[in-house]
Amino acid sequence: MRTIDNSVIKIDEPKEAQFDVSKVRQDFSILTSKSNKKQLVYLDNAASTQKPNQVIDEISSFYKTGYANIHRGVYELSQKATEKFEKTRLKVQQFINAKEAKEIIFVKGTTEATNLIASTYARKFLDPGDEILISTMEHHANIVPWQLACEEAGAILRVAPISDKGEILLEDFKKALGPKTRLVAIAHVSNVLGTINPIAEIIKIAHDFEVPVFVDGAQAAPHFKVDVQELDCDFYAFSGHKLYGPTGIGILYGKKSWLEVMPPYQSGGDMISSVSFRNTQFKEIPYKFEAGTPHIAGVIGLGSAINYLERIGLENISAYEKDLFSYATQEISAVPGVQIIGEAHKRTGVISFLVDEVHAHDVGTILGQEGISIRAGHHCAQPLMERFGLTATARASFGLYNTREEVALLVRALYKVREVFG
Ligand code: 7TS
């Protein structure tokens, strides 16, 4: 038994401590701060994660001692900054096991990655009557860019249905594929349901139809090891800020064979090999897709975040989070009047729920008063909400620094919500 905030809450200790969470928490200074005069309990990790001091320090030190623009300076500072930047590309390559570093493109985040594919792949390969296949559980970032691309090309956006439990219906998915399908774009993990999609199987099915697959890995990469070669995906995207790294930086992986035949995305400096008023030649990949001065410090910070995660070990993080997630699921669902949305067999990271008839925003507000930060709303997945006949849910989402004590505080606050709303 442990005590929290001088009140007594019984906590069942995890069977096996995969890593020392109290040590991990020491790396995140913000976790010792207060919110509404209560201990901050940060459970909005699906929106964005907090940053360890190592990442913050690395960015600060880069600006203090190593900063210059890259790819252009003949002087030492620029050359060293370029080296650091390109080393991070190699680090990302290893992190997701891409075959070559040139398959790693630095983008702003998952949203920009989707837009890049929608603008370049779609511009080149989509003809009138062609189809793009997504699923009901996509984030708006994996819906709207395809709507626009389809509109422009006269193509059709098809949507694979999901079950009441929140799982892709694989037979229906298969039926939705056909000779006109040009791309499947699908989330690895749902940001609302937590469903881990059987992505390798989905890719295999799509490839049997010779259809390439874009995987939105925004909610997957922070929670388990991603191996793009093993998955055999054609494209994979994730955001640095959900991976304990800085905002404004993300990764788009693409198979070399695709990236080489796709036209550039944005254009301007740094993506060209020569420019004249008659003719412009573009650089090789990945530079063809990286116009202008990139988010250099963001890239350095992302590299530092990956180092941080690798030092702890993705396997250890996954095991710890798995235990915490099942504990949280059990404890939250045991609160009378609470209904969890999403019961897929395999889940991670997020738990969406309703509390009696209380509006999700009111749930979020009361929890906020108790120092507990969760998200309430449609989570940028309105079509998914519609599928479940809802307009909003409350959502607690977990990261590597969350604890059973925090789950207990959340549960106690949920009782308070019920008390307040009678
Ligand atoms: N795809 C998924 C599955 C996401 O969860 C998000 C962000 C995005 C794409 C977009 O990522 P960005 O980094 O480009 O913004 N999801 C959330 C969320 O669930 N709450 O806030 C942002």
| CATH architecture classification of the largest domain | 3-Layer(aba) Sandwich
Number of helices: 14
Q: What strand order characterises the main sheet?
A: 6-12-11-10-9-7-8
* Heteromolecules bound: ligand 7TS
Strand content: 15-25%
Profile the largest sheet: 7 strands, mixed
Structural account:
The chain has 422 residues and is an alpha/beta fold. It has 2 domains: 21-51 and 313-420, Aspartate Aminotransferase, domain 1, CATH 3.90.1150.10; 55-311, Aspartate Aminotransferase, domain 2 (3-Layer(aba) Sandwich). The chain has helices spanning 21-26, 53-66, 76-95, 110-125, 144-153, 170-176, 199-208, 228-231, 256-261, 296-312, 314-333, 360-369, 382-387, 404-420; strands spanning 2-4, 7-9, 34-35, 38-39, 41-42, 104-107, 131-135, 156-160, 181-187, 213-216, 235-239, 250-254, 272-275, 280-282, 338-341, 350-355, 372-373, 375-377, 393-397. A 7-stranded mixed sheet has the order 6-12-11-10-9-7-8, sandwiched between helices. The radius of gyration is 22 Å and the shape is globular. The model is unreliable at 1-10 and 12-17 (pLDDT under 50). Bound molecules: ligand 7TS.
Fold topology:
Elements: E1 2-4, E2 7-9, H1 21-26, E3 34-35, E4 38-39, E5 41-42, H2 53-66, H3 76-95, E6 104-107, H4 110-125, E7 131-135, H5 144-153, E8 156-160, H6 170-176, E9 181-187, H7 199-208, E10 213-216, H8 228-231, E11 235-239, E12 250-254, H9 256-261, E13 272-275, E14 280-282, H10 296-312, H11 314-333, E15 338-341, E16 350-355, H12 360-369, E17 372-373, E18 375-377, H13 382-387, E19 393-397, H14 404-420
This protein binds ligand 7TS.
